[in-house]
Q: What sequence folds into this?
């Protein structure tokens, strides 16, 4: 089963993909009006069967839920939510440990956070 992971943010969105239970960072896109369409195209191209969106607390969490509902309507693919507490900090810590330079970390942290969110969901559900 191919699964898409999303680290939702107001300014940018991190993307990860999993095939056969292993999440991998894909990239980061700017969040703007056409982002839903871009993700819908990606879902179709990559033959995604399930979407996981990181969910935080407060207003950003509510926006992530609204985004997930819109994405589900557009794609017809079921969207699930996974707690994303401290995933960006965890992603940065892992990249520092791996010796990644600061600029690389800043550019990729959301994609790595999306992979952490997605892997947590996969591990929890044994997908």
A:
């Amino acid at each position: 089963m191919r699964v898409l992971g999303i680290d939702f943010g107001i300014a940018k969105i991190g993307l990860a993909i999993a095939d056969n239970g292993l999440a991998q960072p894909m990239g980061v896109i700017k969040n703007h009006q056409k982002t839903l369409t871009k993700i819908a195209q990606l879902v179709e191209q990559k033959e995604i069967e399930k979407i996981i969106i990181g969910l935080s607390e407060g207003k950003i969490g509510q926006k992530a839920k609204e985004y997930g509902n819109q994405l589900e309507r557009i794609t017809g693919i079921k969207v699930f939510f996974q707690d994303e507490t401290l995933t960006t900090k965890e992603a940065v810590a892992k990249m520092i440990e791996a010796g990644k330079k600061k600029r690389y970390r800043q550019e990729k942290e959301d994609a790595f956070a999306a992979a952490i969110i997605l892997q947590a969901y996969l591990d929890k559900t044994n997908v």
About this structure: The chain has a mean pLDDT of 87.
